[in-house]
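Input record (Table S2, row 160):
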Amino acid sequence: MKTVNLDINFTEYSSIEEMSPADQALVREAIEAQKGSYAPYSNFNVGAALLLEDGTVVRGSNQENAAYPSGLCAERTAMFAASANHPGKTMVCLAIVGGFNHEIAHSPCTPCGACRQVMAEYQTLGGKPLSIIMFGTEKAWKFDRVDDILPFIFDSFNEK
Ligand code: THU
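Output record (tetrahydrodeoxyuridine complex):
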């Protein structure tokens, strides 16, 4: 028997200017994506921008519904749109912004567990690390791979 520790590494930024030009551009795409958010029930608006291997950027935003569970998060909207419209293209980086009433929160917008699980499968499918940027106006985080935000991923491929 032994205790095992996990190390999770990520980068923290205190302003958008500290990020690489490519990451800044993706965050700005996520900010644009947030404008498409339809969230009349929670008033929490999320935007996501997903960079594909060929430079294509696919935007997503959260879409709510009066039948609450029928809605979908911004991240999954972007990933499913990318997979549906650009099948086979590897997903490289996903930027996320969020806040109430179409503003952007000070702290990073962290994705829900269901979105992390979907990220994990597309990362496996793509065969390359999918990095995630969680942006807030006073603090932003970048994780280099989904494993760092979802350790012990459920992966049915492992069960075979
Ligand atoms: N939401 C997202 O779109 N992404 C997240 O990472 C967290 C939550 C949405 C779902 C719902 O429309 C609203 O934010 C409030 O939970």
